[in-house]
Amino acid sequence: MQERVLRDTLLRQPLGLPMDEESLDWEDGTRHFGLFDEAGQLAAYVLASPLPDGSVRLRQMAVSPERQSSGLGRRLMLEAEAELRRSGVKALSLHARDTAIGFYEKLGYSRIGDIYLELGIPHQLMGKE
Ligand SMILES: CC(C)(COP(=O)(O)OP(=O)(O)OC[C@H]1O[C@@H](n2cnc3c(N)ncnc32)[C@H](O)[C@@H]1OP(=O)(O)O)[C@@H](O)C(=O)NCCC(=O)NCCS
């Protein structure tokens, strides 16, 4: 359950949220992508959930703090995108924290609509065909 630790440490604890007990992550069709280091430690993670219209929502993107800014986030996103494309997925969307919007823009994601609040922090819906 390395992914739970990474997600809780990076995405939930900074917001004062309790440990993630959601079970939705494991619903049919949800796919988990990860990059592991030589020691088998999870270094980067993202989750892909199918939406009813056939597109996919990317969620819970996180790179371990000591490995951020070394290209791993981009590498994981590109690997996940390529794999999803091979599966026939034609459109991706995500809810970006405002602090990460620039990261997704560099990967070709466009802003959709206005900034809104989610979990008490500003987010931006973004998409990529
Ligand atoms: C945001 C995050 C996923 C980026 O991963 P990363 O491995 O650090 O990013 P990379 O090193 O692959 O960066 C790829 C490019 O995006 C840029 N970038 C990275 N993080 C950025 C950010 N927060 N804002 C703007 N640009 C960013 C890099 O400068 C790099 O640009 P370049 O192509 O000009 O060199 C990572 O920092 C993270 O896990 N942050 C904490 C959790 C979080 O905020 N997750 C996103 C929730 S929506």
Describe this structure in words.
The protein has a 6-stranded mixed sheet, sandwiched between helices. It is built from 3 helices and 6 strands. The chain starts with a helix and ends with a strand. 21% of the residues are buried. It is of the alpha+beta class and 129 residues long. Helix content is 25%, strand content 36%. It is globular. It binds coenzyme A. The site of coenzyme A (COA) has 19 residues, from helix 1, strand 3, helix 2, strand 4 and helix 3. Coenzyme A binds next to helix 1, strand 3, helix 2, strand 4 and helix 3.
What would a concise description of this structure say?
This protein is of the alpha+beta class. It has one domain (2-128): Gcn5-related N-acetyltransferase (GNAT) (Aminopeptidase, 3-Layer(aba) Sandwich).
Total domains, how many? Answer: 1
Write down how many β-strands occur, each being a DSSP E stretch of 2 or more residues: 6
H-E string: HEEEHEHEE
Helix content: 10-25%
Low-confidence stretches: none
| CATH class label | Alpha Beta
| Annotated CATH homologous superfamily | Gcn5-related N-acetyltransferase (GNAT)
The gross shape turns out to be globular
CATH architecture: 3-Layer(aba) Sandwich
* SSE-based structural type: alpha+beta
Order of strands in the sheet with the most strands?
1-2-3-4-6-5
SS summary, helix count: 3
CATH topology: Aminopeptidase
- In percent terms, what proportion of residues is strand? 35-45%
Q: Which radius of gyration do the C-alpha atoms yield?
A: 14 Å
Largest sheet features: 6 strands, mixed
Calculate the mean pLDDT score and round it: 91
Question: Cα distance, first to last residue?
Answer: 31 Å
